């Protein structure tokens, strides 16, 4: 029986889970694919840490020997970070090796260059595990919906923040308490900044938008906000008003320009994504012929990601055996997608003002909203002790982002309004 040798770089949570999956299901994969998969070399930074986890002769320091091995047609990159993976993946593609990666940070920053290298060298760069953990959302976009035009994508793409918001909602925890629990359970990194500030989700949605709309979207240029400002009081008011807080990533086209965003949003409790809990991810894709379809699965954890990596490996081996032409990602290597101006975006908004408890506050707030052409839908004021600060909650009708930002700035700069104030967007579609 034919054998295919694979080189693996990285043996952390995902790398070790992927290795375990291949070894555990070696016979099953042999029956399904008609070949025997052998991970013959595993490159790591510190081999001493993994002496008891891998057979003798498999473990290597670094990845130079893997790149030089002409008998390794496939390299799986599961290192993390950007600088070293960029060197590894670039050189592997130039050497005519197929590459599988789960590195959304790498692809979101250098994907246009790497996809071009893959095309030029007649090899494939596969990346299903880079978005959505175990959800095959990239496969859906590139294969299942190949005959459709993607109209919009809306999803929960970060398991860490979804776990935190779930705990804040259901267990009435503070942000700090929920984050600590997520770290203890392994759903959040020791330094969770990329997750909680929305960067991880921004990298993922920008990648999905690039694939769907066939032009490059730079995640650093989109509207991106994290969940750090969401408080227990915000959660409680949202729940009282029939909403649930979720960190939502969206991508759609509007008059030839892309609307790509990430921010904590209030969703109606009836919304399909409102019931996505814990570390799970959920994605809604709307296309012209299929309509709206939803995909749900674990978005965090080594096993879920390893499952997607193994799927890529299986697809790649089948194509190699059939001697099929490479299936490149068709993106313009130069042209970037024009983004819709952030100030022109329109939503309903939830504004939370922390104020002194004294006469005239309502008049100040409502007056400045009116002067900025913002129509109020409802107002609620809440305080437990008249001698302490008050919470003023306001829902407003659909208006432009620029109007809300200007009004919010003017209100917070007014006497009696405190800087702990914040505002969030409401997504009803």
Total strands: 16
Q: Let me know the largest β-sheet.
A: 10 strands, mixed
Q: Let me know the average pLDDT.
A: 92
How are helices and strands ordered from N to C? EHHEEHEHEHEHEHHHHEHEEEEHEHEEHE
- Runs with pLDDT <50, length 5+? none
Any idea of the CATH topology of the largest domain? Dihydrodipicolinate Reductase, domain 2
Approximate helicity band: 25-40%
What count of structural domains? 3
Rounded to the nearest angstrom, the radius of gyration is 24 Å
CATH architecture of the largest domain: 2-Layer Sandwich
* Estimated share of beta-strand residues: 25-35%
Observed structural traits:
429 residues; Rossmann fold; 6-stranded parallel sheet; 3 domains; 10-stranded mixed sheet; Dihydrodipicolinate Reductase, domain 2; 27% strand; Alpha-Beta Plaits; elongated
């Amino acid at each position: 029986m034919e054998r295919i040798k694979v080189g693996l770089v990285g043996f952390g949570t995902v790398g070790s889970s992927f290795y375990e999956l291949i070894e555990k299901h070696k016979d099953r994969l042999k029956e399904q694919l008609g070949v025997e998969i052998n991970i013959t070399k595993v490159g790591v930074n510190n081999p001493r840490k993994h002496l008891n986890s891998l057979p003798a002769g498999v473990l290597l320091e670094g990845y130079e020997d893997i790149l030089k091995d002409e008998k390794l047609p496939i390299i799986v990159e599961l290192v993390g970070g950007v600088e070293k993976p960029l060197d590894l993946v670039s050189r592997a593609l130039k050497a005519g090796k197929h590459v599988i990666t789960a590195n959304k940070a790498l692809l979101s920053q250098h994907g246009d260059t790497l996809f071009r290298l893959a095309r030029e060298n007649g090899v494939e760069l596969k990346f299903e595990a880079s978005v959505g953990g175990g959800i095959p959302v990239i496969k859906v976009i590139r294969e299942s919906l190949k005959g459709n035009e993607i109209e919009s994508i809306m999803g929960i793409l970060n398991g860490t923040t979804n776990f935190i918001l779930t705990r804040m909602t259901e267990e009435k925890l503070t942000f700090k308490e929920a984050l600590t629990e997520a770290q203890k359970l392994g759903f959040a990194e020791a330094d969770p900044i990329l997750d909680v500030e929305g960067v991880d989700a921004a990298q993922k949605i920008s990648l999905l938008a690039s694939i769907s709309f066939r032009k490059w979207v730079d995640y650093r240029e989109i509207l991106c906000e994290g969940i750090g400002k969401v408080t227990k009081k915000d959660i409680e008011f949202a729940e009282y008003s029939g909403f649930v807080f979720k960190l939502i990533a969206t991508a759609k086209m509007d008059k030839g320009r892309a609307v790509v965003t990430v921010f904590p949003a209030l969703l109606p409790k009836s919304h399909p994504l409102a019931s996505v809990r814990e570390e799970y991810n959920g994605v809604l894709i709307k296309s012209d012929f299929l309509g709206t379809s939803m995909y749900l699965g674990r978005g965090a954890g080594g096993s879920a990601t390893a499952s997607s990596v193994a799927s890529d490996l299986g697809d790649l081996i089948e194509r190699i055996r059939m001697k099929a032409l490479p299936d490149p990602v068709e993106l313009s290597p130069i042209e970037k997608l024009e983004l819709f101006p952030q100030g022109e975006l329109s939503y309903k908004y939830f504004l939370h003002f922390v104020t002194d408890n004294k006469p005239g506050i309502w008049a100040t707030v409502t007056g400045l909203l009116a002067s900025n052409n913002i129509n109020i839908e409802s107002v609620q004021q809440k305080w437990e002790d008249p001698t302490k600060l008050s919470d003023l909650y306001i829902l407003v009708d659909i208006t432009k982002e620029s109007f809300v930002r200007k009004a919010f700035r003017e209100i917070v700069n007014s006497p009696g309004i405190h800087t702990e104030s914040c505002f969030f967007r409401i997504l009803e579609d």
